[in-house]
Amino acid sequence: MILPVFLLEDHKYVTESYISALRNISVEAEMVISYSLTDALKKLNNKNLKGLQLAILEYSIPPCEINNLRNGEDIAKIIRDMFPEAKIIIISAMFSNFELESVLKSINPEGIIEKSDMDFSELCLILQKVLNGEVFYSARVHKTLLENEAKFPFLDALNVKIIGLLSQGIATKNLPKYLPLSLSGVHKRKAKIKEALNIDTGSDEAIIKEARKKGFI
């Protein structure tokens, strides 16, 4: 059986490692390879792309402002919508706390991997586990998620998104354009975020400063 695989990675030598790992676990893959976000979007919009079963996506890849694509997470969202049964693995050299929580809560991928946790044999094991229906987080990712759960109990998908948008310079009044919330709902959530971060008063900059101080962004 041939396995349709989508691969997003901006370094060709890394893509060769993924291809070799799939061969090593006896997977005959039909590869669709993209080296940029723009090319990934173009190939996903190709009507001939059908039945995608596995996506291996680099998170930290140069953004594409024209199509409002920031990183591999945006491509993962498109794949999740188009191919809900596909297994998604997101890989990066290192995730910030914010990036990790955003990926987990918006995509809930089958695999999240930091490259420092992974050699070739580990990569083969990860691919095998994910294809067998398991969810796999690499050691550093698992450790960070446990620490975040203890340090940032107020986090849910919307609160993560609010902090992320504020850190990008989006004004509070414009947040409802990006979120399924009214402006009143945004203010209520911001109040809870401030309470959790021990901010009595202050502007959006105070939230960003404290979130950065605590290592979230």
The run of helices and strands is: EHEHEHEHEHEHHHH
Q: What count of domains describes the coordinates?
A: 2
Q: Briefly note the structural class of the backbone.
A: alpha/beta
Give the averaged pLDDT, no decimals: 92
Gyration radius, rounded: 19 Å
CATH topology grouping of the largest domain: Rossmann fold
Strand tally is: 6
CATH class of the largest domain: Alpha Beta
What would CATH call the homologous superfamily of the largest domain?
A: Response regulator
Portion in strands: 5-15%
**In which order are the strands of the major sheet placed?**
2-1-3-4-5-6
Largest sheet: 6 strands, parallel
- Unreliable spans: none
Number of helices: 9
Looking at the overall shape, the CATH architecture of the largest domain is 3-Layer(aba) Sandwich
Shape descriptor reads globular
Provide the helix percentage.
40-55%
Cα distance, first to last residue? 43 Å
3D structure, described in words:
With 217 residues, this protein is of the alpha/beta class. It has a 6-stranded parallel beta sheet with strand order 2-1-3-4-5-6, sandwiched between helices. The protein has 9 helices and 6 strands; from the N terminus they run βαβαβαβαβαβαααα. The model has no long low-confidence stretch (mean pLDDT 92). Helix 2 runs parallel beside helix 3. The protein folds into 2 domains: 3-149, Rossmann fold, CATH 3.40.50.2300; 157-214. The protein starts with a strand and ends with a helix. Strand 4 (87-92), helix 4 and strand 5 form a beta-alpha-beta unit.
